[in-house]
């Protein structure tokens, strides 16, 4: 039951995490990116999300 | 998404497909089209996506990557309900999250 509730909480939080990620990206934002810029931004975003989610719910995601 | 993906993979060429695989849009067959205002509270990512689109540059890339990464966690949350290790499992567990 708790897992299910956690999942519900996580579901709503996920949208916030994506929003936070975009907000955090503003510091590194590139208007006309090279392919490298795009690849770097992609990796950065995935790392950011992984770190944020692990901090919020390290055991029961 | 199959057809858009096919376009991106074959571009600039096109791949011949069958009517069974990808039927042509037939508006007469469809009959009615209904349009509704999207529920922006239910789908908060919609506004986020438009904002990212307006920002342009690398913002859409970040949105897409974050979205993909998040969906892995959502899948993981569902898998956890059926996982071998239970709540102490992590996304890198070789037994449960293959």
How many strand units of chain B?
0
**Helix proportion of chain A:** over 70%
Oligomer: heterodimer
| Number of DSSP helical runs of chain B | 4
- Relative strand content of chain A: under 5%
Q: Could you spell the SSE succession of chain A in H and E letters?
A: HH
Spans of chain B of 5+ residues with little confidence (pLDDT < 50)? none
Quick check: average pLDDT of chain A? 78
Shape call of chain A: elongated
Radius of gyration of chain A in whole Å, from Cα?
Answer: 14 Å
Of all protein chain pairs, which has the greatest interface, and how many residues does each chain bring to it? Answer: A-B, 36 and 30 residues
What is the compact description of this entry?
The complex is a heterodimer of chains A (61) and B (98). In chain A, 75% of the residues lie in helices and 0% in strands. With 61 residues, chain A is an all-alpha fold.
How do the helices and strands line up, and which of them pair or pack?
The complex is a heterodimer of chains A (61) and B (98).
Chain A: H1 2-25, H2 35-56
Helix pairs in contact in A: 1-2
Chain B: H1 2-10, H2 27-30, H3 45-55, H4 59-81
Structure description:
The complex is a heterodimer of chains A (61) and B (98). Chain A is mainly α. Chain A contains two helices and no strands. In chain A, helix 1 (2-25) runs antiparallel to helix 2 (35-56). The longest helix of chain A is centred in the N-terminal third of the chain and has 24 residues, at 2-25. Chain A is elongated, with a radius of gyration of 14 Å. Chain B has helices at residues 2-10, 27-30, 45-55, 59-81. By secondary structure, chain B is an all-alpha fold. Chain B contains four helices and no strands. The mean pLDDT of chain B is 83. Classes of the chains: A mainly alpha (61), B mainly alpha (98).
């Amino acid at each position: 039951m708790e897992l299910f509730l956690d999942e519900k909480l996580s579901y709503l939080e996920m949208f916030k995490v994506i929003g936070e990620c975009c907000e955090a990206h503003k510091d590194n934002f590139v208007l006309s990116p090279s392919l490298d810029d795009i690849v770097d931004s992609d990796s950065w975003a995935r790392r950011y999300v992984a770190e944020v989610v692990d901090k919020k719910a390290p055991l029961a995601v | 998404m199959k057809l858009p993906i096919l376009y991106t993979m074959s571009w600039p060429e096109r791949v011949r497909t069958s009517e069974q695989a990808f039927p042509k849009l037939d508006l007469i067959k469809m009959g009615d089209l209904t349009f509704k205002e999207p529920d922006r509270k239910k789908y908060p990512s919609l506004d986020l996506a438009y904002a990212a689109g307006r920002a342009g540059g690398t913002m859409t890339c970040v949105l897409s990557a974050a979205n993909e990464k998040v969906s892995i966690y959502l899948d993981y949350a569902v898998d956890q309900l059926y996982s071998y290790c239970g709540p102490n499992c992590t996304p890198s567990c070789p037994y449960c999250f293959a």
